[in-house]
Design a protein that fits this description.
Residues 7-64 form the HTH lysR-type domain. Keywords: DNA-binding, Transcription, Transcription regulation. It comes from Sphingomonas olei. By secondary structure, the protein is of the alpha/beta class. The protein has 2 domains: 9-87, Winged helix-like DNA-binding domain superfamily/Winged helix DNA-binding domain (Arc Repressor Mutant, subunit A); 97-304, D-Maltodextrin-Binding Protein, domain 2, CATH 3.40.190.290. The protein has 11 helices and 11 strands. The chain has helices spanning 9-21, 24-31, 35-49, 65-90, 108-122, 135-144, 205-214, 218-222, 230-238, 248-252, 286-298, and strands at 54-56, 61-63, 97-103, 126-132, 149-154, 161-176, 197-200, 224-227, 243-247, 261-265, 272-280. The strands form 2 sheets. Strands 3, 4, 5, 6, 7, 8, 9, 10 and 11 form a 9-stranded mixed β-sheet that branches. Strands 1-2 form a two-stranded antiparallel ribbon. The longest helix has 26 residues, at 65-90. It is elongated, with a radius of gyration of 23 Å.
Length: 304
């Protein structure tokens, strides 16, 4: 029987890193090897399977169509190899070892400062690697294996994953003090001046949650969408440039401290979003993720 030579996990890791980075030098850095080592490993892989996967020029790294197909397969193989270690960790201490979590920008700065101290104190063997990115990139990272779980806001279509809702996050209208009547009553979406409304730029799901909660289709066309972050928009509102919508966790975290901004709850039929934790179906670390979900739910009202 002829000998069968199989690609190594290291060779597949080099190939995926090159696809992600689009540059040999940067790919080598992410793999903690020299550029020549990474390049040699990919050449060995090409020799092994007898096809060219990467077209090399001085300025451009271009994958062949077959190269793209093999990268997709390599991602699945690497993810399943990592799950072998996950199975062993799941049989041992809870929330231990490495875990990579992607968190959307409208959650990360407001919820993580509450949960990270508890995780460090109660689960010192957990090495939590965090990445802040919009929902689309976070869900793609989950499916490709770059992330183990995702902290996001619903509704959002993240694909075929397990989702554990954590808590509802009510939406508030924030405006320069005095611009609207001083009241504790919710603000009707009909009272919002669409020409003064500032929202996050495309790519942030909070904008879609706001539009859905207001149920005013004209807001998408009329609102001034120009903010790159909630902190930036708050500064704009504080300077009298408009009004905006903020989630309750941002208010609880003190985003309006030292500003001249007033916030009132949004009225309507569904003035909220739902914070949730998502992970791949049938993950061997499901118990870890459910425990993490319990912790995230329990700390949401703690002051920073």
């Amino acid at each position: 029987m002829a000998n069968i030579y199989l690609p190594t996990l290291k060779q597949l890791q080099y190939l995926v890193a090159l696809k992600d980075q689009g540059h040999f030098g940067r790919a080598a850095e992410t793999c903690y090897v020299t550029q020549s080592t990474l390049s040699a490993g990919i050449r060995e892989l090409e020799t092994l399977i007898g096809v060219t996967l990467v077209e090399r020029t001085r300025r451009v790294v271009r994958f062949t169509p077959l190269g793209d197909q093999i990268v997709a397969k390599a991602r699945r193989i690497l993810r399943e190899a990592e799950e072998l270690g996950d199975m062993a960790r799941a049989a041992g201490r809870p929330l231990s070892g490495e875990m990579r979590m992607s968190v959307i920008p409208t959650i990360a700065p407001f919820l993580l400062p509450r949960v990270l101290p508890r995780l460090r104190a109660d689960y010192p063997d957990l090495k939590l690697y965090l990445r802040e990115e919009p929902s689309a990139q976070a869900c793609e990272a989950l499916h490709s294996g770059r992330a183990d779980c995702v902290l996001l806001a619903l509704p959002y279509a993240c694909g075929d994953v397990t989702i554990e809702p954590l808590f509802d996050d009510r939406l508030f209208l924030a405006f320069p003090t005095g611009e609207l009547p001083d009241s504790v009553q919710p603000v009707s979406p009909l009272e919002i001046d669409e020409t003064r409304l500032l929202m996050l730029e495309d790519g942030h799901c909070l904008k879609d949650h706001v539009l859905a909660a207001c149920n005013r289709p004209e807001l998408r066309a009329e609102a001034t969408m120009m903010g790159t972050s909630l902190h930036t928009i708050v500064q704009m509102v504080d300077n009298g440039l408009g009004l905006t919508m903020l989630p309750e966790i941002a208010l609880t975290a003190g985003i309006l401290d030292h500003t001249g901004i007033t916030a009132r709850p949004l009225g309507g039929d569904n003035p909220k979003r739902t914070i949730a934790l998502a992970w791949r179906r049938a993950s061997p670390r499901e118990k870890d993720f459910r425990l993490l979900a319990e912790i995230l739910s329990s700390v949401r009202d703690r002051p920073i």
